[in-house]
Amino acid sequence: MSATTAGTPIDLSDTPRVPFSRLARVELRKMLDTRSGFWLLLVTGILLVIAAGLVLLVVALNDDVGPSAYDWSQILVIPLSLLLPVFAILTVTSEWSQRSGLVTFSLEPNRLRVLGAKLAAVVALAFAIVILATVLGAVGNVVGAAIGGYDAEWNFGPRLLVTSIVVQVLYFLMAFGLGTVILNTPGAVAIFYVVALILPLIVYGILYSIFDWARQTIPWIDLQYGTAPFFDQDLDLSGVDVARGIVVVLLWIVAPLTVGAMRVSSSEPK
Amino acid sequence: MRDAVAVRQGGRMITVERLTRKYGAFTAVDDVSFVAQPGRVTGFLGPNGAGKTTTMRVMVGLTPATSGRVTIGGHLYKDIPNPGRHVGVLLDASAQHAGRTGREILTLGAQTMGLPATRVDEMLELVSLSQTESKRRLRNYSLGMKQRLGIAHALLGDPSVLILDEPANGLDPAGIRWMRGLLKSYADRGGTVLLSSHLLNEVELIADEMILIGHGRIVAQGNKEQLLAGVDHKVTNVTALDNEALTRSLQAKGFTVTPAGTGLRVEAAPVDVGRAAAENAIVLTDLRSADGGLEDLFLELTSDTQRDDLTEGARA
């Protein structure tokens, strides 16, 4: 930072740089202060309530149905994973598609700091939402047991809790990473849904149940199949299970984030 | 304007040094050098696509330079911590999330810069956006309102330098006059203003110093007098109390005179017409050069064909 000989120096000694915590707080606010942010949250909230309500209804109408805490968590995760990763995509892509990056990157020229702040905001949001769903699931479990007249089954150990939180956060990070690589809202959203929902549900599910080679291959390339063994509380994880977990995280989180960080640093927000 | 206290008139606040930006074979900015001084409004003038925006984008680090550099207050923009507190930037008033309210956009800026929330209201008042307007979403703003909001955003951090790309675009005549006053008084307090425009009249009225750019190159720079010094005035519009007497005396000197409106159009410089009138004791009520002045110069300098041979004469 050398002052040019004939320059009129601006004295920078009194100006600290923008603290990271402040950047992250602003980025969190930016995820929620738009109409799209508001509706995403609202619709997710409604879906969550509907899902919980449906389970309770089934419990009330059927004597032989008694969902455990694990069942509850599996059900309530669906509305969360459906829409909320879009937040993680939008926080990056909207800087380009809404062109607000011009201002964002003028106020903090170090783009990797901005990206880090967005990442922190996304992780914070993901945590908050998963914890909310866990609490809701616990309440549902108690209420369901009361309605159905059975004893609530608390088969939701610490390992399961940690795994489900981590995997939810991983999906958010995958969405975030795809956003940084593609830098375009519709493109990133479409690709995320294909990779995270459609392929595992429709394509992989069928292949997995039919072909032996699919059972060998898919856990290496899909986040859901690759992390599935970690949810099994009774299973002792094998080396292969751990290796598959690491590979899918490298493939869908580390690689996109690395490429995306380079994209964000070099791309010119117009 | 904390920084402005230390600023002397005549210093260099923004220094562009041999800046070049190429996109493949296309050179958007070609070896551009100029300075913007504190206490002055510097107009950056050129037709669309001349390289104004690219130069400004390089200034604030959004576009990397191919070669050369820009310093602000002696620093590269990327080295300025919390740059919003030193340099106010408005590159495109529409480049904001359309779903945010004006107030929210300013609040985000104020929070990033670490400013109190009261600053948002101060700025809204400064640019005459009402409380109701500030709660509307940006997609419902007119271009003029977006410009006001953008200027408010640029001024949020009480910077000592303002970099504004086409700030008068979309403002109504009253709005343009308002902005002129705002920027003038900002410069009078010691601030540095660099503003771009493709409209000469706009810049002519406000800028102390003008940089003319065409096809990525600086074609002329200086204040109005310096720019016009090299231009020959060969046609004059004149009106006298006795137009006929003036016509006779001019024709006697060999100048071609044709009636034009209530006056005459003479193929001679204003000084020659004035001299003829004085020699014959003819009272003139109006005398001015019929050349477009800066406008003609601007068009000549920035047109493709004539630019190079006309440049030298006009260089300050």
Describe the structure in your own words:
- The complex is a heterodimer of chains A (270) and B (316).
- Chain A is mostly helical and 270 residues long.
- Chain A is built from eleven helices and no strands.
- In chain A, 78% of the residues lie in helices and 0% in strands.
- The longest helix of chain A is centred in the middle third of the chain and has 38 residues, at 111-148.
- Chain A is globular, with a radius of gyration of 22 Å.
- Residues 1-7 of chain A have low confidence and may be disordered.
- In chain B, helix 2 (102-113) packs across helix 3, helix 2 packs parallel to helix 5 and helix 3 packs across helix 5.
- In chain B, helix 6 links the parallel strand 6 and strand 7 (192-197).
- Chain B is elongated, with a radius of gyration of 23 Å.
- In chain B, 49% of the residues are buried.
- Chain B has two domains: 3-222, Rossmann fold (3-Layer(aba) Sandwich), CATH 3.40.50; 236-289, Phenylalanyl-tRNA Synthetase, Chain B, domain 1, CATH 3.30.56.
- Chain B is α/β, with parallel strands linked by helices.
- The interface between A and B is large, with 41 and 52 residues.
